[in-house]
């Protein structure tokens, strides 16, 4: 596990622009050394829907935008089919720097470890507290563990509209200041990159859209 170099410099503010500016200088874990830039969340502060994935990929790291690569394009298509507007949603990741290893000239994504997730958790908490979405969609196991706790299983509870308040007491995001959300509904599903890797992509994609429809039903 990498050493935490310094506390994340999270300002006490609900201004996403101020949070984004501060996050650009974060050195709370070692990932900043090799990543091109911090990839902060994107979307309106009053978004009723917030989606949280794992970590930026190669294209996101280069462009500085979350879900800008193939997984993001699949997510956009699935959101549209589920009746959700990506432009009206706030999209982010549990970890804001790209973690990778090299194979020749290619940069291959790696899963962030527990220390890196913990170092970045204050940024995600600040985003949730700023946006305060009505519905929070967690994309994949890393996001689910970061927000709902390590005992949560996406495979068993995906597509269900769950009350955030039921998870808040045990959530890693709950601090002495309390939880970052009040009465939000949480819907868990797979990460879109898992759909791209699936042997039966058509079936995986259909299940992904069905899970997102659960979020759309709450919003409607």
Automatic annotation (TrEMBL):
GO molecular function: 4 iron, 4 sulfur cluster binding; deaminated base DNA N-glycosylase activity; metal ion binding
GO biological process, one term: DNA repair
InterPro entries in UniProt: UDG_Type-4/5, Ura-DNA_glyco_family4, Uracil-DNA_glycosylase-like, Uracil-DNA_glycosylase-like_sf
Domain Uracil-DNA glycosylase-like: 40-213
Transmembrane segments: none
UniProt keyword annotations, A-Z: 4Fe-4S, DNA damage, DNA repair, Hydrolase, Iron, Iron-sulfur, Metal-binding
Listed PANTHER family: TYPE-4 URACIL-DNA GLYCOSYLASE (PTHR33693:SF9), TYPE-5 URACIL-DNA GLYCOSYLASE (PTHR33693)
Similarity comment: family membership: Belongs to the uracil-DNA glycosylase (UDG) superfamily. Type 4 (UDGa) family.
Record-given protein name: Type-4 uracil-DNA glycosylase
Organism this protein belongs to: Jiangella anatolica
């Amino acid at each position: 596990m990498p050493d935490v170099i310094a506390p994340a410099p999270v300002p006490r503010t609900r201004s996403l622009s101020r949070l984004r500016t501060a996050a650009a200088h974060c050195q709370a874990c070692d990932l900043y050394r090799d990543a091109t830039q911090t990839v902060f969340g994107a979307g309106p502060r009053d978004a009723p829907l917030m989606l949280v994935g794992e970590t930026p990929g190669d294209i996101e790291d280069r462009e500085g935008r979350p879900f800008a690569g193939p997984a993001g394009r699949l997510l956009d298509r699935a959101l549209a089919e589920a009746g959700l507007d990506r432009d009206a949603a706030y999209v982010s990741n549990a970890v804001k720097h790209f973690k990778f290893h090299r194979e020749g000239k290619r940069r291959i994504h790696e899963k962030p470890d527990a220390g890196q997730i913990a170092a970045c958790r204050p940024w995600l908490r600040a985003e949730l507290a700023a946006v305060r979405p009505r519905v929070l969609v967690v994309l994949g196991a890393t996001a689910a563990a970061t927000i709902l706790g390590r005992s949560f299983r996406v495979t068993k509870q995906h597509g269900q509209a769950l009350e955030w308040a039921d998870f808040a007491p045990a959530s890693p995001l709950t601090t002495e200041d309390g939880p970052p959300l009040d009465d939000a509904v949480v819907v868990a599903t797979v990460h879109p990159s898992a759909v791209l890797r699936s042997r039966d992509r058509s079936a995986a994609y259909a299940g992904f859209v069905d899970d997102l429809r659960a979020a759309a039903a709450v919003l409607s």
